[in-house]
Automatic annotation (TrEMBL):
Biological process annotations from GO: metabolite repair; nicotinamide nucleotide metabolic process
Native species: Hymenobacter qilianensis
Short name of any one Pfam family annotated for the protein: YjeF_N
EC numbers: 4.2.1.136, 5.1.99.6
Protein known as: Bifunctional NAD(P)H-hydrate repair enzyme
Reactions catalysed according to its record: (6R)-NADPHX = (6S)-NADPHX; (6R)-NADHX = (6S)-NADHX; (6S)-NADHX + ADP = AMP + phosphate + NADH + H(+); (6S)-NADPHX + ADP = AMP + phosphate + NADPH + H(+)
Subunit structure: Homotetramer.
Top-level taxon of origin: Bacteria
């Protein structure tokens, strides 16, 4: 699914109006009706109570007026409050005239902000994506009053005061919504950690915007869902054998951190690799042979950490980093691997920290390598970010400069690519914020890179399946009870959901 800028979204609206020969008011009716359907499917009139709809003077306010009319027609109790303005949009004015006379309308003022009881249901339709400067004056006072009320706030399209695709100025006044209901395509603002307190849980409703325009409009931003992955993971051939799906090598573990190697190995095996070899320090031999009997264990001469690189000839992909440690010997192993590897690499954890501390090694990073940093590890690699948008710029620059794929882990894990495209993941849950979750991801990616998949397909499938496995696991364990091993156990079902089925 594509992510459009605010300008592209407005262009999609206009393309729809022109291709269908409808008015902007008719498209507004369509969007507001979809919103109303969404809301009424979740709350009965009794559960909703009196609904306060805050309307600005533009088309977002026009949406709110249509919602008010539609809700009233379904026997909901509705009250409307509008911001005074001499520049009301035409669609706002037309829908204002259509309001049933029974709907109470109040004009807001500095002395009349309306009381908002705690727990009241409030629909925020003050300002939409056309906003280009922070709220001030009466508009800011209304939003501050709303945020202080502890109401159940649902934002139409985007929380008022929030910029759709640009950094938020410091101390901006923004509606804090419990739910944000947008239309057709998600917005970049929804993907970023800093905006979570404003957006709440977001939803995107289809309103049949012009498909041809959407397909033909280029963007470097995508929301990774199952539809985007369709056809990328093929069903296994009947006469396939273990050699068909590659032989992966994992360089992982050190004294006290052999568990990281085990988790990565379990995930690698669950992700369909044909053969797996673990290179671990001697201290890990008994643990690996017991915990992961399906893998071959190649012990290092050193007892406590990996100190030598084995012969790389047999392997189709190599993952390095989980629990590796940053001693001098593992640093030398990584440096040698970067020089000599002829197969795809996946770098995580201590491998990334070694890169950050020995920046000359970045110049030897093979093209199409896959890196999996969490935000702090990425900061060590690319430098500190001023804000979430600047972090995305750093991610693009880093991937383009080093010709690599970088998975920036988080609530909407973001994949950066060498051509500057960014993909935000749709799967996963807060229960995955647990030790070892990243090791599982490394195992998944190492397995997929061993198979006949492009680096982009392997990365996209890997991050989606990782999150989906976490979602499936959480249905059994609950989010609080989720551990990394649970994620590994559900990788198979997650991948099966993505596998192309045979047609008759």
């Amino acid at each position: 699914m594509k992510i459009f800028t605010a300008a592209q979204t407005r262009a999609a609206d206009q393309a729809t109006i022109q291709s269908e020969g409808i008015s902007s008011e008719a498209l507004m009716e369509r969007a507001a009706t979809a919103f109303t359907d969404w809301l009424t499917a979740r709350l009965s009139p009794k559960e909703a109570g009196e609904i306060l709809i805050l309307c600005g003077p533009g088309n977002n306010g026009g949406d709110g007026l249509v919602v008010a009319r539609r809700l009233y027609g379904r026997d909901y109790t509705v009250r409307v409050a509008v911001l005074p303005s001499e520049n009301k949009s035409g669609d706002f004015q037309r829908n204002f005239q259509k309001l049933p006379p029974e709907v109470i309308v109040t004009e807001l003022s500095a002395t009349n902000l309306l009381p908002i009881p705690a727990g009241a249901l409030v629909i925020d339709a003050l300002f939409g994506t056309g906003l280009t400067r922070p709220l001030e004056g009466l508009a800011a006072a209304v939003v501050q009053h709303l945020n202080a009320a502890q109401a159940r706030v649902v934002a139409v399209d985007i929380p008022s005061g929030l910029f759709s695709d640009a950094p938020q100025p410091a101390d901006s006044i923004v509606v804090r919504a419990r739910h944000t209901v947008s239309f057709e395509l998600p917005k970049l603002a929804f993907m970023l950690p800093h905006n979570a307190e404003y957006v709440g849980q977001w939803h995107v409703l289809p309103i049949d915007l012009d498909k041809k325009f959407i397909e033909e409009t280029a963007t470097k931003l995508h929301f990774l869902d199952a539809a985007l992955l369709a056809g990328r993971l093929q069903k296994r051939a009947r006469f396939a054998h273990k050699g068909t799906y590659g032989h992966a090598l994992l360089l992982a573990g050190s004294k006290g951190k052999i568990g990281a190697a085990v988790l990565a190995a379990q995930a690698c095996l669950r992700s369909g690799v044909g053969l797996l070899t673990l290179r671990v320090p001697a201290v890990g031999y008994d643990v690996v042979q017991t915990a992961v009997p399906e893998a071959m264990c190649l012990t290092d001469p050193a007892a406590d950490f990996v100190s030598e690189l084995p012969d790389l000839t047999p392997y189709s992909s190599i993952g390095i980093g989980p629990g590796l440690g940053k001693e001098k010997a593992p640093q030398q192993v990584l440096a040698q691997l970067l020089r000599e590897a002829k197969v795809p690499l996946v770098l995580d954890a201590d491998a990334l920290n070694i890169l950050a501390e020995n920046r000359e090694l970045l110049a030897t990073l093979p093209p199409d390598s896959l890196l999996t940093p969490h935000p702090k590890e990425f900061e060590r690699l690319a430098g500190p970010a001023r804000d979430d948008y600047h972090r995305l710029d750093l991610l693009r620059d880093f991937c383009q400069k080093h010709r690599c794929y970088t998975i920036l882990k988080g609530a909407n894990t973001c994949l950066g690519t060498p051509d500057g495209t960014l993909y935000f993941n749709s799967t996963g849950n807060p229960g995955m914020a647990t030790g070892g979750s990243g090791d599982v991801l490394t195992g998944i990616l190492t397995a997929l890179r061993a198979q006949p998949l492009s680096p982009l397909d392997a990365a996209l499938i890997g991050i989606y399946a990782h999150g989906r496995a976490g979602d499936l696991a959480a249905q059994v364990t609950g989010e609080a009870g989720l551990v990394a091993g649970d994620i590994a156990r559900f990788i198979g079902p997650a991948l099966e959901e993505l596998t192309t089925k045979e047609s008759f």
